[in-house]
Amino acid sequence: MTGAIELTDDGLVRRMAAGDEEAFTHLYRRRQGSIYRFALHMSGNTAIAEDVTQEVFMTLIRNPKRFDPARGTVGGFLFGIARNHLRKRWAQDQRLVPLVDDGEERGPQSAGAWPNGNSIRANANENGHYAELASRDEFTSMETVQRVRKAIRTLPDNYREVVVLCELEEMSYEETAAALDCPVGTVRSRLHRARAILLEKLREAHPARRASAVGE
Q1: DSSP secondary structure letters along 122-166
Q2: Any idea what DSSP says for residue 192?
Q3: Is 117 a domain residue?
Q4: Which of 6, 17, 106, 142 is the 20 to 30 Å CA partner of 156?
């Protein structure tokens, strides 16, 4: 496989549509990790994350022509498929909490209500983004990484989505809006609200530090 254009995500999907199996392998290696992380952050369950990741790429390989570059990027397209598969899983399993579409926070039972495990597998790049979130909110120690990770897990799902996509996966507002099938303005407002919730959760976790700051 040669040529810069052919090695773009769009180019790989075009080659897949033409029957190039190697193109699928390249795209899978490039995008599998981010899709898995998204599914894991949203479900808190490694088995579900693995299943959803497999389903996303099986959907793509069965019909690569579903991707329309006029509607967004390949990454946004794949995240959108992942989100739809997660919705199906939640609909099938009443023990899991479904996603919500509005911008309102849900009640207490929405926070972290995952029945089977809640570990988050973060690589070094993600840890950097956790630290960046913490630094942005005046929590600069690397010890904050675990607290931010935990706080993200307790966000309502519609807020957690935008944090994972915009902050951890570094997708643009436009890409995120395409993946979530909502206006860009909704992405911005949810992300703003999510950051405020995270900051408050971190401050609540360290009341002594907050009290000391007030007394200075």
Answers
A1: --HHHHHHHHHHHHHTT--STTHHHHHHHHHHTS-HHHHHHIIII
A2: H
A3: no
A4: 142
Q: 54, 102 in Cβ contact below 8 A?
A: no
Name the burial class of residue 3, with classes exposed (0-12), middle (13-18) and buried (19+) by CB atoms within 10 angstroms of its CB: exposed
Q: For residue 21, give every residue at least 6 positions away whose Cβ sits within 8 Å of its Cβ, in sequence order, or none.
A: none
pLDDT of residue 163: 92
Our count of domains for the chain comes to 2
Query: What's the chain's average pLDDT?
Result: 75
Q: What is the DSSP string of 2-54?
A: --TGGGSHHHHHHHHHTT-HHHHHHHHHHHHHHHHHHHHHHH--HHHHHHHHH
Whether the pLDDT of residue 202 is over 60: the answer is: yes
142 and 89, same structural domain? no
Express each pLDDT in 145-164 by its tens digit.
677 778 888 898 899 999 99
The reported pLDDT for the residue numbered 103 is 39
Q: By residue range, what is the domain housing residue 5?
A: 1-97
Q: What gap in Å lies between CA 163 and CA 199, rounded to an integer?
A: 13
Structure tokens at 28: 């899978």
Is residue 109 over pLDDT 50?
A: no
